[in-house]
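User: Could you walk me through two proteins back to back? I'd like the raw sequence and the structure tokens for each, with a short line separating them so I can tell where one ends and the next begins.

Assistant: Of course. Protein one, sequence then structure:
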Amino acid sequence: AHSKRRLIYGIKEILKHLKAEGINIVFVAKDFEIFKDCSTDLTNSLEEIIEVCNRRNIPVIHASTRSKFSHHLNKPGSISIIGIVDYSGAEELYNEMMKKKEKSDGISEGNVEDTDV
């Protein structure tokens, strides 16, 4: 039996699932900012992801680092972005995180401590 994916990672996958309206929250690694100085497809894709999230009121949280994302997901390389499809079973953590998010300077600009992610 196949189980439904609870999270998506990778810029192209996130964008694809956002367009299909399948993501509820997006985490972007704080050190993804290094790409902002470059005129790359990655930067354009990140900007598009943030725009889609803003239009659909999907929270974007800048937290942790690419290497920590990879480590916690037990994936090689570095993961810059994670999309949560289904947070059932973790509603309490989600609600707590959203309360902290409301206290920050905006959905796409705030930060959540690494220990909270």
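----
Protein two, same layout:
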Amino acid sequence: AEFSGSQFATDHHQPGGGQIVRGLSRIAQVGHVFGGQQEQRGVQMAIQKAYIEVQTIEKSDDPKLFKEFRINSALNNRGQSLAINGLCKNNRLEVMIDSGSKGSRMNIIQITGHLGQNNVEGRRIQSEIDDGGRTLPCFERGDKHPRTRGFIESSFLKGLSPAEFWFHAKAGREGVINTAVKTRDSGYAERKLVKRMEDLTVLLDHTVRNSVNNIISFSYGESLNPTMMYNSDGPSFVDIDNIVNRLNATVPSNPEDDESAEILYEVRGVARYKEITQSVKEYRASIKSLKEKKGAVYKKLLNAARGKLKELLLEKKELEVEKLNN
């Protein structure tokens, strides 16, 4: 027997058939549940402002790496609050995320707002075809618009264009590969670390030694207590200049007020640079004081080692003299 689509959809004897029409009517209303036209227009206006900011950054004289950081920051923090605030309070996805059962705010942004910038190998999509002239054949050669470098202004609710779908799949493919490769690398790194450290012991004199009593370190952890260094102004062995550049390039702007965000961006950069510069001076002073304190201890250990060596050399000479006399 043959069944028509309408007969199958309204046949109450089929498993779940009676719910199909009602389900389709709910899907038709999903746009209203996920916010109105005002929020969508706000997101699009924020994206257009981001495009203008990217053009300004492209024309600047900043180093290439720093410029890429600023472009990524400009494209990834636009219209997010509008997409989230446009949700109905009774929205099931919103309730699920608020309760902590499943999902995150990023899922809401990608469904209702836009997917944002897609990166591959930590960079925007590179122009790899036509001698580095473009990312896809559908774009003009030399076009530097964010859309041609992996920025997706569409959402899952509206649907992606063919080019956007390609960029999104390219970034997703990298994630799947990294999941497999990094699991292997991290597992092997852990095994090597365990085998290397399996016979190391911290003795009562705070020295680190192996199974044959060779000294690996004169002072475990350089005598720095991690519990005392947490959230403190103690010495740091981090590249401060690199952190300053990265923070200044990735300061999130306020999507609700883009003009004030630009001002805050500059002010925060100057304030952060002064703050960390002052911290560098304090770190250097702390390291110098640490060297002075530890210098006396290391000197004693060195003198003891030299004394022991002299005793061994003296014993060796005495044995050689005895052999010659005999």
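Residues 1-18, 253-257 have pLDDT under 50 and may be disordered.

Let me know if you want the two compared in more detail.
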